[in-house]
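With this grant's support, we have paired protein sequences with backbone structure tokens. One protein thus recorded is set out beneath this paragraph:

_____
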Amino acid sequence: MGASGVKMPSYVMKLIKPGRYLPPNTIALRVPLNMNKFQIKSYLENLYGIRVLKVNTLIQLGKTRAVPYTKFHQKLSDFKKAYVRVSPQDFIKKT
């Protein structure tokens, strides 16, 4: 017998603090670089059961930092941010 349901790879999405003002029903997530908008939307809808209205993504380039006491520089890794707007009925207000 085959397994029924949606196959979901184990992606890690991290809730991050946005650097700008966001509407109350919008959340900011750090997602893997290889995920696109449709995968993010279906992942959140199937796993958490929330209705996603819109997904905006951007790739944040990693910063370059100087290594102390040397002449070398270190580049931090790039990452992708996703701003997800959820349905107002599914949104839980912070108190």
User: Anything to note?
Assistant: Residues 14-86 form a domain with the Alpha-Beta Plaits fold (CATH 3.30.70.330). Strands lie at 14-15, 26-31, 52-60, 64-66, 73-75, 79-86.
